[in-house]
């Protein structure tokens, strides 16, 4: 049974007062339940605003919310302290959305991405995309890779995301019946691919990006483009509440630096996977795959990107110190 809005607010106030913690992530699968309904989240945000509670919130939504959410709704979320919204996009292909039993359409997914791009200085849109799954095809993966690139979400190399299959789920039954499931109930990624061209690509990228240097690189960019983005938006909201225009500009400049680097990394990620997917269409060649990686993301390039990330962080710290 769901908690009342008043009880949630009381718990938030208690945590703030007792522990001086004012950043919260809700584990609810979605605040727009049931049936694409905004009544509950609107009541929650209005209560926060009414009681002048200055806290920061991470929330989950589904993409069909875009059908009913107005600019007034998004601004209410921002004013009440929401800094990150997570949406399980999963795919930009209708047949895959149907396979995953998603109520969303590709149109919903595109529209929510377009809408929240307008708020990138105030809301961090995090998404989930399932790139590898038992019924992945090269053609569908190329579509998903394109949309990840278009909306700057290839920057975190979401093309490495793999479906996990749990016992007694719809996907478990389907893959088991099709002879694709190879797990024992505990190894959730143990399955074959219906499209045999996908297997070579999957095994290659999982091995390539599990190398120590690339693992460290992925940790750096994920920490920066996800966690540090969240941090900057929390600071932005704090300075808005304090009406400190100078510090708001410091944060905005740091976000601009981030977005500039994001363009660069996002494009590299897209190109790597687009070329690997093209390679997978024909006769797979490991030497050519290595060449694609080396041409677009060699050790020197990874170190250059990491150095820029650290420089951007230092600029923020230095500029904030100068504003004190």
Main attributes of the structure:
324 residues; alpha/beta; 4 strands
Q: Number of helical segments?
A: 12
Tell me the total number of β-strands. 4
Radius of gyration: 21 Å
Q: Approximately how much beta-strand content do the residues carry?
A: 5-15%
Average residue-wise pLDDT:
94
Low-confidence stretches: none
Q: Kindly name the structural category.
A: alpha/beta
Distance between the termini: 47 Å
**Dominant shape:** globular
Order of helices and strands: HEHEHEHHEHHHHHHH
The biggest beta sheet is recorded as:
4 strands, parallel
Instruction: Write out the strand line-up for the largest beta sheet, numbering strands in chain order.
Output: 1-2-3-4
Helix percentage? 55-70%
Outline the structure in words.
This protein has 324 residues and is of the alpha/beta class. The protein has twelve helices and four strands; from the N terminus they run αβαβαβααβααααααα. It has helices spanning 5-19, 39-50, 71-80, 94-99, 106-117, 138-150, 170-177, 196-208, 212-241, 245-281, 286-296, 299-323, and strands spanning 23-25, 56-61, 82-90, 124-129. It has a four-stranded parallel β-sheet with strand order 1-2-3-4. The longest helix is centred in the C-terminal third of the chain and has 37 residues, at 245-281. The termini are far apart. The model has no long low-confidence stretch (mean pLDDT 94).
